[in-house]
Specification:
Length: 337
């Protein structure tokens, strides 16, 4: 019996399985920044500024008008996990929390009962380009946790476990462990109300880099879990005697060890796995609940309260260019890296 359940090309966003709701991969070759950490006006001609999802000249503005990114917007009923591989992300939210994180860092945010936040990509380099590479993953919350208090946590690159595994020929596979466990190395703690906080749910989030010619065995997980490999960059790999090119999704049986043999180029993967929540999912834009009635109530509540309002003077909040990596939490505690 094949260990591969499905192979299909990667679309946008990437197709996910319960308990995951959404996964988007962003790679943008942003140009040199101006003095305001934005894009010079002449480069914006021909773009649908404020709603720019079209890849042009290697980059997009998304919803930004002066600076690329996503100005303030609400969420309820799930979590966002933002994995930064290259570039700068500035966070601000309706609780008064803020932060800046860079290559190798991960932000884990439980939206819970409701939060507004902005995610901007300031172009801090005025001499060279400002490439950005991030994943944004939406992890569902079960009904019992959909209205918990919002919370965000930084997983800093210095603290996130990374394992380098060598095969018999000495070729290396490097795994960043954002959630789960590999080779008896456990991830950092997640936010407290996350589906991933309970080890019994076997949530695994891994970014993987395989050296050309390397082989690696992805260890089995719970038989009831879902497991997806997103092969987003590289040449060709072999899994269970089948050759798969890059830009493909591979869905696998969960309770078997999976040997991956890389071809002649470096290859890069995102792996998502976990026990499904198995509850109804009703989504309306940035709100994810269990019933249509709960969505209607969410929309009414957001109309009344704006989930606490927006305490910042700008909708596209960016931090000072020389600020560096930091996290300011709603209780006033500040982490500086």
């Amino acid at each position: 019996m094949s260990k591969i359940l499905n192979i299909e090309p990667l679309g946008f966003p990437w197709k996910t399985q319960d308990p995951f709701l959404f996964c988007a991969y962003h790679r943008d070759e942003y140009p040199t920044g101006n003095s305001k950490m934005g894009v010079d006006f002449e480069l914006l001609r021909g773009r649908n500024v404020g709603q720019d999802f079209t890849l042009k000249d290697g980059w997009r503005m998304y919803h930004g008008t002066n600076i690329p990114g996503f100005p303030y917007h609400p969420h309820r009923g799930f979590e966002t996990i933002t994995i930064n591989k290259e570039g700068v992300v500035d966070h601000s939210d309706s609780l008064g929390a803020a932060g800046r994180f860079m290559a190798g860092d991960v932000q884990w945010m439980t939206a819970g009962r409701g939060i507004q936040h902005s995610e901007m990509f300031p172009l801090i380099n005025e001499k060279d380009g400002n490439p950005l590479e991030i994943f944004q993953i939406w992890l569902n919350l079960p009904k019992a946790s959909k209205l918990v208090e919002p919370h965000f946590k930084m997983l800093w690159r210095e603290d996130i476990p990374v394992v380098s595994l060598q095969d018999e020929s000495g070729k290396s596979t490097t795994v960043q462990i954002i959630a789960g466990s590999i080779d008896n190395v456990d991830a950092l703690d997640t936010t407290p109300d996350s589906w991933a906080a309970n080890p019994a749910n076997a949530v695994g989030i891994y970014t993987v880099k395989m050296e050309a010619g390397a082989s690696w065995v992805l260890p089995k997980t719970l038989p009831e879990a879902n497991r997806s490999i997103f092969f987003y960059k590289g040449g060709e790999v072999e899994i269970d005697s089948r050759k798969v090119g890059s830009r493909h999704l591979i869905e696998l049986v969960p309770d078997e060890n999976i040997e991956i043999s890389n071809g002649s180029e470096e290859s890069y993967f995102l792996i998502l796995e976990g026990k499904p929540i198995n509850e109804p999912v009703v989504q309306h834009g940035p709100f994810v609940m269990n019933t249509h009635e709960e969505i209607q109530e969410t929309m009414r509540e957001y109309g009344r309260t704006q989930f606490g309002g927006w305490p910042w003077t700008e909708t596209e909040v960016v931090h000072p260019k020389d600020k560096g990596r930091f996290a300011l939490h709603s209780d006033g505690k500040e982490e500086i890296k």
